[in-house]
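step 4 of 6: structure.
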Amino acid sequence: QQQVKQSPQSLIVQKGGISIINCAYENTAFDYFPWYQQFPGKGPALLIAIRPDVSEKKEGRFTISFNKSAKQFSLHIMDSQPGDSATYFCAASKGTNAGKSTFGDGTTLTVKP
Amino acid sequence: EAEVAQSPRYKITEKSQAVAFWCDPISGHATLYWYRQILGQGPELLVQFQDESVVDDSQLPKDRFSAERLKGVDSTLKIQPAELGDSAMYLCASSRRQGGDEQYFGPGTRLTVT
């Protein structure tokens, strides 16, 4: 049973456009929702994270939108750049142990110049 | 900038052989994690250490996998015997403490079992 479903599997966006990646979760006990960015040959790196007490969090060009009732959250990348081309993973965990995060299967983003 | 170190970066081994991976977390990080990432999927936690103690190894296939962190610093993950299905990226991560803290991932070890 996959507890975190991520879509789309791949995404192609023009430079300057908005990239949107969606995730849905099943376990209502989840209370920490990070997004990771992974470049080829590298480990994932934390990009931005949100807890369910807020509906939106913004850091620079990256925004998480969170819908607790729908059990969905999404990553928006504004003004997408070729350097943003990478694989993005959403994740969810419960309690304070981020190490027990359940990851989505990833979205490969390609930003065309 | 401090980083999590892993070695080797790549490993090719034959089925039924033993293989070992090493991880050196960021200095001062008490919590260490080993993940397995199959191509096209997200990482899956195999084992979590708090200092030298195992906190969670519920997803570790204990018939063939073992992990240790004897002095609470660096860690070794071993597979014996390796099977074709073990081909994956093995990621190590560390964080300052168990709860509520950012994990820092190493570059991973890409294992291919032939």
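step 5 of 6: annotate
 - Chain B touches chain A at residues 4, 31, 33, 40-45, 48, 56, 91, 93, 95, 98-108 (CB under 8 Å).
 - Chain B has one domain: 15-99.
step 6 of 6: archive
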